[in-house]
Design goal:
The mean pLDDT is about 90. This protein has a single domain (about 5-159), classed as Mannitol-specific EII, Chain A. It contains five helices and five strands. A five-stranded mixed beta sheet has the order 1-4-5-3-2. It has helices at about 25-35, 45-55, 115-130, 135-140, 145-159, and strands spanning about 15-20, 60, 65-70, 80-95, 105-115.
Amino acid sequence: MERFEFEDFLDDELIFTEFEADNKEELIFKLSKIIEEKGYVTKYYANDVLQREKKYPTALPTEVMSVAIPHAESSDNVMTPSIVIAKLKYPISFIEMGSFDQKVDVNIVFLLAVKGSKTQLKLLPKLISIFSNKEEMKKIQQANNSKQIFQLIKDAMQA
């Protein structure tokens, strides 16, 4: 059985608060560059994510704050699985999941760089369960540093 631990994907060095970008394209490029410089993805990863985002938007409006979970369709450009989390200083417009024109002002982004569809299928429901939990999202919204956010998400994923 494949081992699945949240810690395999994230460390607090990949969590950012007050992150700034002018639009979703710039945001995805900036976040991808961070993990590219760590050797986790290739320079082509950001383009893979943007192509998938055009076909299958990833914004989820929630009661507390809206979330986007951009990720690539293929794991060809992922060397080391990771999740980059960015709480945004200013909301950025994404398109709502399941829609092609419904804009959502997103407050937090989870950029997923994972290998294999099985891993993605295990990870996405766990994340979505956090996003749909009003109390957990309030805690994440109020957290003001990467270590707090890391611990909140880790605890929520293990619940």
